[in-house]
Specification:
The protein has helices at 4-12, 16-44, 46-66, 70-98, 104-108, 110-129, 134-143, 146-155, 163-168, 172-182, 186-202, 210-218, 222-240, 243-257, 262-290, 292-316, 321-340, 342-352, 359-411, 420-449. By secondary structure, it is an all-alpha fold. The longest helix is centred in the last third of the chain and has 53 residues, at 359-411. GO terms for molecular function: symporter activity. It holds the Pfam family Sugar_tr.
């Protein structure tokens, strides 16, 4: 959309406000897909929820590519957004539930890899097709996005269902067959099956009811509250640090820095997409070796420095060659640090910290926070930059990124190498520890009064 919006504006003569709505509405509407995805995945399974996501996105993408007017384009964008909401919610949950603990961080980062790869392909397609007539090029830019969802549909006939979901459905033999495929030995598969059964039984997972699940989420115990703060908080910080504005509006940023021609603008966005994709591979290699928390520190601190640097470049070096180079470097630095930590680890944490009985619905709630934050930022970016300049906007993002560092320090535990069931115990123990500290403090105050 970042490149297509340039030619949509020229072809359909849409206003600046309509541009903001077109870009940002995808994130807002996707929250409905994320909310529906939690219940749907508990009902029909993780695997077929992925298929439903692909089907809905294909429908919306086709409508967008063929849209004769802004209204029809918006309808396609809304439908595609619902499909994206399903996909964002279910992909990390599915991967976390079929992955061994030792490699779960790397494997659960795969959605972020392909999101980044998709962004890169989007930038490349924008550059490849931008010389076509304005009433054709943006349709092709959006239409080629249908190809990956077709691949996903084919893959559904190969990938297995989540063994944890199968256990919840009391389909033990099928769950065992899946575990045999993803375990090192039959003994290992048996042990995993018993561990999953125990977790399911302790959470009354065989008596799932949406009402009961949401009651526990809305009136959480101390451990569940800490899980929600961690999972939803990291999702929101992923977006409110401004990453989607860089993805969607990078041509606007570079134009503000001093780049004028369409070819040069789109070429610069390709550099951003390439950087974002390459650095996610570093995260994949390190996430299960160094752990989640060290990478989050590197990520949030690096993003903070990059965002302040971009603000400086746009304020004091705008339209100078050195300023343009500095701005491109700062944007690439921002997306690089994002891809090393906050980008992939957000999905890893939100998919692994919740207990089996709450995982789908709580992950959906976290995805809603992400989508609302993304939509609010994307839909207000142009208006905010008109009010406080592009440089001022990225200074604000830098301040928010500073608070993300503090959030990581206080609210994110290390989950490296732990099974999903062990992580549940980790939060339980933390909750009990906090409760014990509160009780001790109350007792001390009473002693002092007496």
């Amino acid at each position: 959309m970042s490149g297509a919006i340039i030619y949509i504006q020229k072809d359909l003569k849409i206003t600046e406000v309509q541009q903001e709505v077109l870009v940002g509405i995808l994130s807002i509407i996707s929250l409905f897909g994320s909310l529906a995805g939690g219940r749907t995945s508990d009902w029909v399974g993780r695997k077929w929820t992925i298929g439903l996501a692909a089907l809905i996105f294909q429908t919306g993408g086709a409508i967008m590519a063929l849209a004769p007017s802004f209204k029809v384009l918006m309808i396609g964008r809304l439908i595609a957004g619902v499909g994206i909401g399903f996909g964002i919610m279910i992909a990390p949950v599915y991967i976390a539930e079929i992955s061994p603990a030792i490699a779960r961080g790397s494997l659960t980062s795969f959605p972020e890899i392909f999101i980044n790869f998709g962004i890169l392909l989007g930038y490349i397609s924008n550059y490849a097709f931008h010389k076509l007539p304005a009433h054709i090029n943006w349709r092709i830019m959006l239409g080629v996005g249908l190809i990956p969802s077709v691949i996903i549909a084919v893959a559904l006939f190969i990938i297995p269902e989540s063994p944890r979901w199968l256990v919840v459905q009391n389909r033990m033999e099928e769950a065992k067959l899946v575990l045999l495929k993803i375990s090192e030995s039959e003994k290992d598969a048996e042990e995993k099956l018993q561990e999953i059964q125990k977790a399911a039984e302790s959470g009354n997972a065989d008596k799932y009811e949406t009402k009961t699940v949401w009651q526990e989420i809305l009136h959480p115990s101390p451990p569940v509250l800490r899980m929600l703060i961690t999972g939803c908080g990291i999702q929101c910080f992923q977006q409110i640090t401004g990453i989607d504005t860089v993805v969607y509006y990078s041509p606007t940023i570079f134009k503000n820095a001093g780049i004028t021609g369409d070819s040069e603008l789109l070429a610069a966005t390709v550099a951003v997409g390439f950087t974002k994709t390459m650095f996610i591979l570093i995260a994949i290699l390190l996430i299960d070796k160094l752990g989640r928390k060290p990478l989050l520190y590197v990520s949030t601190i690096g993003m903070t420095v990059s965002l302040f640097s971009l603000s400086f470049a746009l304020t004091f070096l705008s339209h100078a060659k050195v300023g343009i180079a500095f701005a491109i470097l700062a944007v690439c630095g921002n997306v690089a640090f994002f891809s090393v930590g906050l980008g992939p680890i957000c999905w890893v944490l939100s998919s692994e910290i919740f207990p089996l009985r709450l995982r789908a619905q709580a992950s959906a709630l976290g995805a809603v926070g992400s989508r609302v934050s993304s939509g609010a930022i994307s839909m207000s970016f142009l208006s905010v930059t008109n009010a406080i300049t592009v440089a001022g906007t990225f200074f604000v993002f830098g301040v928010i990124s500073c608070s993300a560092v503090a959030f990581v320090y206080y609210c994110v535990p290390e989950t490296k190498g732990k099974s999903l069931e062990e992580i549940e115990v980790l939060f339980q123990n933390a909750g009990e520890s906090i409760g014990h500290e509160v009780e001790m403090a109350d007792a001390e105050r009473l002693m002092q009064k007496s």
